[in-house]
Amino acid sequence: IIKKWSIPCPLTLNYVEKGFQSAYALPTMAFSFLCHTSILPIYCELQSPSKKRMQNVTNTAIALSFLIYFISALFGYLTFYDKVESELLKGYSKYLSHDVVVMTVKLCILFAVLLTVPLIHFPARKAVTMMFFSNFPFSWIRHFLITLALNIIIVLLAIYVPDIRNVFGVVGASTSTCLIFIFPGLFYLKLSREDFLSWKKLGAFVLLIFGILVGNFSLALIIFDWINK
């Protein structure tokens, strides 16, 4: 918000983006609100955990996240219009490379990532262990090796992937759409004993179809965008 008024932008406002760039929008939003992998660890850390308390935590977290995302996206776009970078701080760093506010935001993001990675890393390591080593007794050596391997993969992706938008787009179109739209709808259809024509089951079916269409269509457009480049 502060830097919107510090950097004059001579470009015209573009309300509609045409082309393959729009394919990244919905997958990126799905990736941004994906918190399912952290639900169980956070639930276990609650004092007197219950479904109602977890729902309140989830609602508060998503509402705060939406507010922060909305403000950042809105004023980031109003600063650079259609020349906005996929990584917002890149644009500010070009014009305000030594600005105190920009450097402070970078430090805050650094600390946020340092605190977030362990939460996401725990279910990833747990999933690898359950998939490949569920029949073996616990081993600290294997535990550390899986942790090391996951961290190496993360660092290599961070170093060699040229644009973070590619990661958000592909993961959002594949994994995020499955966890947010496809799997919940599929699980409800499988487990519910209601009639298929009931409103809840029809809603679950619509959610399932929507996830399949959005995920596949977005992923196809993203791949076409890579080919064209």
Task: Report what the structure shows.
The structure is a single chain. The chain is mostly helical and 229 residues long. It has a domain at 88-161. Helices cover 72% and strands 0% of the residues. It is built from 8 helices and no strands. The protein has helices at residues 25-32, 39-45, 51-80, 88-95, 100-132, 140-160, 164-191, 199-228. Helix 5 packs across helix 6. The longest helix has 33 residues, at 100-132. It is globular and about 55 Å long. It is a multi-pass membrane protein.
Provide a compact summary of the structure:
This protein is mostly helical and 229 residues long. The protein is 72% helix and 0% strand. Helix 5 (100-132) packs across helix 6.
Notable features of this structure?
globular; mainly alpha; 8 helices; AA_transpt_TM; 72% helix; 229 residues; 0% strand
Chart the SSEs and their pairings.
Layout: H1 25-32, H2 39-45, H3 51-80, H4 88-95, H5 100-132, H6 140-160, H7 164-191, H8 199-228
Helix pairs in contact: 1-7, 5-6, 7-8
Transmembrane segments: 56-80, 100-120, 140-161, 167-189, 201-224
GO biological process, one term: amino acid transport
Family: Belongs to the amino acid/polyamine transporter 2 family.
